[in-house]
């Protein structure tokens, strides 16, 4: 199933470029415009996402249960998609914003691995649920005459939901192994083992 590519928390080459001799002694640095823009976009996304999440939760609570099986399927897909979006909004985006501000990983090795697993799972689950929703729309349009028959379904909704979640978990599991704390110029980073080898070669 399609997944979204997830950026890695690695040491940017601009980190050393942003330091001057005086700044290095004082432990401060200035962000280049690209990182300033990225940080601002993350902040805007968090604010807008929070508003959208509140609206979505209230809409789910007001949602009346209907007899149409297709509506129940779509609601279950939307709930799973909302869970994935919430992980991206409240875990991935704030961490990226904080990391861009400090270029320092404060969470330790265990939290690094768990964080990478969580955000990778969120991106994979988002892609999987988008595929399921598209597939559900296809089934709906091709079997539209059966929509008003209560209990009529062309596939097992729980089975497909389980497959989507399991695939996301399986695809995310390697993150627990390949990510670790890599120290670069006394600067701890949550990075992959391959990046560690690259830094060692340098």
Automatic annotation (TrEMBL):
Coiled-coil ranges from the UniProt annotation: none
Domain of life: Eukaryota
InterPro entries: GPCR_Rhodpsn, GPCR_Rhodpsn_7TM
Domain G-protein coupled receptors family 1 profile: 49-202
Entry's Gene Ontology cellular component terms: plasma membrane
Topology term for the membrane: Multi-pass membrane protein
Subcellular location: Membrane
Protein name (Swiss-Prot/TrEMBL): G-protein coupled receptors family 1 profile domain-containing protein
